[in-house]
Give the backbone structure.
Amino acid sequence: MHRDIDLWVFIKDELDTTHERRMFCIYFVANKITMRFFNLTAIFICIVFITSFTSNNQKTAPNLDAQIGRLFFYDTRLSINKTKSCASCHDPKLAFTDGELTPKGALGDVVRRNTPTLINLADNETFNWADEKITSLQLQSNIPLFGKHPIEMGNDSTDNSTLQFAFSDKMYLPLLQQKRIERLNWSMVKDFIAEYVGQLKFHNAKYDLWKNGKVKLSKDELAGKKLFFGDKLNCRKCHSGNDFDEPEFTRMNQYQNIGLYNIGKDSIYANGDNGLENETKDRDDIGKFKIPTLRNIAITAPYFHDGSAASLDEVISHYARGGRLIEKGKFAGDGKLHPNKNQFIEGFTITEKEKKQLISFLNTLTDTSYLKNAFYRNPFQAN
Ligand code: HEC
Ligand code: HEC
């Protein structure tokens, strides 16, 4: 029975949708039958399969850690002057982005990059636009919480005393008591926040509903989908997988140069931000940034690592040209000719009608249904 419990934990935690759970059960039982090995475990799995028809699609109630993490995520007391929380930049209404080109920290410092969405990323191997060393949500949190260049939230990582306010707050106290916590430190707080961010997994966009046979896509949406996955535009070469954030072929890197800049003889990128090269110091990495998810793309403008494209129209024009031309000013240069540009950014012709169709398809990736659930909204605001 011990193995059955492990199996149950796996089904419950790792398989997100009823559909995935059913497919796993069918596969598992079929496997047992072909091996003429129909035992207790197989019967148990059949029961899981049957109950998955009656259970709804929701996962179990969020655990205590995630509930505590939720409070910290939205709490401006986690910044030096009590003005910024994680949610100041990662607003649930904008799919956990902020609508800014690049955001400002608590003391007004400009943050160099555009704020990415936090949805469906907890299982990623690396975080951040261009730093392979950031392999956990906790490591990523160090940057806004404690970073000095720029200052984002401006905390001192060696000073745990600032966290003890939670024990005199009636929202935190019962949760901390249930966990029998008597003193908080930053490491615990980062773990709690990571638990919360880990809960931000949503696959109820129109596109998902269509995949599960629940709704139809319009003619334009279907035409846009065909363009997206087709060989003329090549989008799928990089934006593949369930969240459109991984290369189609595993041998291709997660970090790619798509020809946004090409400044001076060294082909550098704007604002001294050369992406992956900042860390590796390898010239071949100049301009390489992580392939971002396209989920909720309709509501996460402006686009690219520095917010330099205002609309999806602009993004598509960039790809259609095969790289961006900046004619004058300090960023002048032709990104199309960047030596590190990926081979799939070749340029293509696209009519206005096709552009609209492609955007209609991208719009089917929007899912804000989670906003109905208070757990994904700010607990300190009546909304
Ligand atoms: C001042 C705005 C700001 C604040 C405050 C902020 N973030 Fe971010 N966040 C960003 C930006 C900008 C990036 C992209 C950073 C980069 O790539 O250099 C980012 C990246 C991330 C990522 C990586 C996303 C990805 O696609 O890999 C995670 C996770 C994240 N933030 C979580 C948090 C958490 C948790 C907090 C609170 C502890 C927080 N952020 C506070 C602006 C902010
Ligand atoms: C060679 C890989 C590659 C191909 C092909 C590709 N993309 Fe991208 N895409 C990326 C990378 C990498 C970024 C981030 C670049 C940056 O900001 O420096 C990106 C960014 C984007 C963004 C902005 C996302 C955000 O959150 O800011 C959109 C939208 C997008 N791509 C759509 C498309 C579409 C539509 C196509 C097909 C026409 C396409 N991509 C083809 C790799 C690719």
Notes: The pocket of heme C (ligand 2) is lined by residues 233-235, 237-239, 256, 258, 260, 289, 291-292, 294, 297, 300, 303-305, 312, 315-316, 319, 342, 344-345 (CB under 6 Å).
